[in-house]
Design a protein that fits this description.
The protein is α/β, with parallel strands linked by helices. It folds into two domains: 132 residues, 3-Layer(aba) Sandwich (Rossmann fold), CATH 3.40.50.2000; 148 residues, 3-Layer(aba) Sandwich (Rossmann fold), CATH 3.40.50. The chain is built from twelve helices and eleven strands. The protein has a six-stranded parallel beta sheet, with helices on both faces. It has a five-stranded parallel beta sheet with strand order 3-2-1-4-5, sandwiched between helices. Strand 4, helix 5 and strand 5 form a beta-alpha-beta unit.
């Protein structure tokens, strides 16, 4: 059987699909596993040993469809389930199984604060998509393979340190600067700051305010960031893709939650054998406005930003 797995974005969501790939390939080695994603996420999957062929969306969906039609797939495993993947499926005319995004349940929780969400991680829901193929969860967690050529030799790092991934796609998912300073001052250890180029200015402000920080925001590749976290004592992160990479590397994580909630099923996902007793979820309970979104906003819709401003550290 030749299977096409679809997940076009983003970092965390793609990393969370890796147990599906591993379980498909190890439990059904006769299957050919192909994966389609956006070109900018190629690095997350190119070293994955459970993928036979990677297909990249680079601009035109029509070009990708033309490429995929040549493969004659037997099944599409749609782990994105949006308009684009439905469009692709309709053109390939192949049997499709799809991931349940729980849009209705999330809408009820965000708009009416009625919790009909299942107590189930998104990884387990991804795996349910292929359960009719006889695939079961091997409970080995997430996969993230760091290339052997990856090095941090250009950076002067302390022997022991903590990592703080300070970025997030939306501002309501990350601490404001004043709370970031409070967080860093509560950690009695060198802290290495990581993030994209868009986080470099915030990292500079934070490192200027806190003597125990080293700002590497905008200076590392994603593989270098992963290697940095792999060698860290602990990782602090907002609800972002870096949190899921840290979980794939089996690092203790302090995850910081603002407008989103763990009940959405996106908490750090570890192997069953991993002792996660040193990991912590930080969130402000009993806020009537939370969650205000399943994704995030540029600014707090209420103006007070209590979900982050009321966070406690130490």
């Amino acid at each position: 059987m030749k299977i096409l797995v679809l997940r076009f974005s983003s970092i965390g969501d793609i990393v969370l699909t890796t147990p599906v790939l591993r379980c498909l390939k190890t439990q059904k080695p006769e299957f050919q596993i192909h994966y389609a994603t956006k070109k900018q996420y190629r690095g997350l999957l190119v070293n994955n040993p459970y993928i036979d062929k990677l297909h990249l969306l680079d601009g035109s969906l029509a070009d990708l469809v033309a490429e995929l039609k040549q493969e004659n797939f037997d099944l599409i495993v749609d782990l994105h389930n949006n308009l684009r993947t439905v469009n692709l499926w309709s053109q390939l005319r192949v049997k499709r199984v799809k991931f349940d995004k729980l849009n209705w349940e999330k809408w009820l929780m965000v708009r009416l604060k009625v919790n009909m969400l299942p107590y189930e991680h998104i990884v387990d829901r991804y795996l349910e998509t292929v359960s009719d193929l006889g695939i079961v969860n091997d409970e080995k967690g997430l996969d993230y393979l760091i290339p052997e050529t990856t090095t941090l030799s250009d950076f002067n790092l302390p022997d022991s340190y903590t990592v703080y991934a300070l970025g997030a796609q939306h501002n309501t998912k990350k601490l404001p600067l004043s709370k970031q300073i409070e967080l860093c001052n509560s950690v009695n250890q060198p802290i290495v700051l990581i993030g994209g180029k868009e986080d470099a200015e915030a990292g500079e402000k934070l490192s200027s305010a806190c003597n125990n920080t080293i700002n590497l925001c905008g200076q590392l590749s994603i593989d270098q960031s992963a290697l940095l976290m792999k060698n860290a004592i602990k990782v602090y992160s907002h609800d972002t893709g870096m949190m899921h990479i840290a979980a794939a590397l089996c690092k203790p994580i302090v995850s910081i939650w603002g407008n989103t909630i763990p009940e959405f099923g996106m908490t750090p996902y570890y192997p069953a054998s991993f002792d996660d007793s040193n990991s912590t979820i930080l969130e402000v309970d009993n806020l009537k406005c939370r969650p205000c979104s399943k994704i995030g906003f540029d600014t707090c819709p209420k103006g007070h930003f209590k979900c982050m401003m009321n966070q406690k550290f130490g």
